Amino acid sequence: MLNKNAKIIIPGAAGLVGQNLIVLLKESGYWNIVAIDQHEYNIKYLKELHPEIEVILADLAEEGEWTRSFAGGDIVVMLQAQLTSKTADPFVRNNITSTEIVLHAAKEYQIPYIVHISSSVVISVADDDYTRTKARQEELVKSSDFNYCILRPTLMFGWFDRKHLGWLSRFMKRIPVFPVPGDGKFMRQPLYVRDFCKVIMKCMENQPERKIYNITGKEKIDYIDMIRIIKRVKHLHTIIMTIPFGFFEFLLRVYAIFSSKPPFTADQLKALAAGDHFPEDHWWETFEVTATPFERAMQETHHDSKYSKYILKR
Q1: 12: which of 42, 80, 145, 291 fits an S-S bond (Cβ 3.0–4.6 Å)?
Q2: How many CB atoms lie within 10 A of CB 175?
Q3: Surface-to-core class of residue 29, CB atoms within 10 Å of its CB (0-12 exposed, 13-18 middle, 19+ buried)
Q4: pLDDT averaged over the chain?
């Protein structure tokens, strides 16, 4: 069992999972937390919300003074990841190079356990830069000498969400008509990030030996139904309209020309429609975590008095 005084090091702490995980860790009595990230805008939220923890602004793809923070560490929770980019280099840099350096630092300072956050894409039909580099990142952990637990989450949403459902909900609020590709009946397994963070914490505490778990949303729901629930939860009057799949893909490609960081790419659209059904490892039983129903999780996401106002930048 992990001691409440244990030193917890979190590379990539300023993203969606890290922001939520630190909230949960503090609620659970953990206080000796080192948060490391390169995103200056997002890291200011960590400093604002958690002034008592150590927050380090650093590029994990470059060796530097930040590695000294691993000294005396009890566990590393690796969250760093490049999620979107129009070119391959950022994926290689932030998914592979950063992992090599983090693992080297963990080995130098003899960290006894690692929790690595991978992605369900490594077992999906998708084939893109994100998928390939996440798969390589996972292999680096598996081939290391560390005792580890690897978690592969599906599409996540919740507080601080800057992407996916978070972006879609904000987009819906700004426009009178919300376009949905095809008939919108693409089965999804959305995962509430707060539930996922509870799984991470159980993994930290129980420390299963060199295990891999697929962490899918327990509830299966079509994409168009997710959109309808978001509309209902946010009390919007937006018209939801289905449009031909090919035309929707064309619009995404045009948008990507003018956006350096498109929130939703044509490749992700193909993955959405591919019909992936990820294996369920019944994490709610393994880790004894109650899964939050999608609509209730959406209510918590958009109507929390403290955290709903915080939105990260990409």
Answers
A1: 80
A2: 11
A3: exposed
A4: 90
Per-residue burial over 122-145, b = 16 or more CB atoms within 10 Å of its CB, e = otherwise = bbbebebbbbbbbeebbebbeebe
- The domain defined by 8-160+189-218+276-291 folds into Rossmann fold (3.40.50)
Q: How confident is the model at residue 145 (pLDDT cuts 50, 70, 90)?
A: very high
Instruction: Tell me the whole-structure pTM to 2 decimals.
Output: 0.89
Tokens of 177: 């008509």
Q: Are 148 and 116 in contact (CB under 8 A)?
A: yes
- How much is the pLDDT for 263? 55
Q: What is the pLDDT of residue 154?
A: 87
* Model confidence band, residue 30 (pLDDT cutoffs 50, 70, 90): very high
**Rounded Cα gap, residues 237 and 255, in angstroms:** 24
The two three-digit tokens of residue 229, written as one number: 């629930």
221 forms beta bridges with: 188
259 half-sphere exposure, CB direction, 13 A CA radius: 14
Q: Quick check: 140 and 99 in contact, CB under 8 A?
A: yes
3-state helix, strand, coil in the chain (%, to 5): 45, 15, 40
What is the torsional sign of CA 159, 128, 282, 211? negative
Q: Is the separation of the CB atoms in 223 and 188 below 8 Å?
A: yes
Beta bridge partners, 34, equal 9, 54
Cα→Cα distances 310→24, 118, 166, Å = 16, 25, 11
Distance CA(219)–CA(226), nearest Å, equals 11
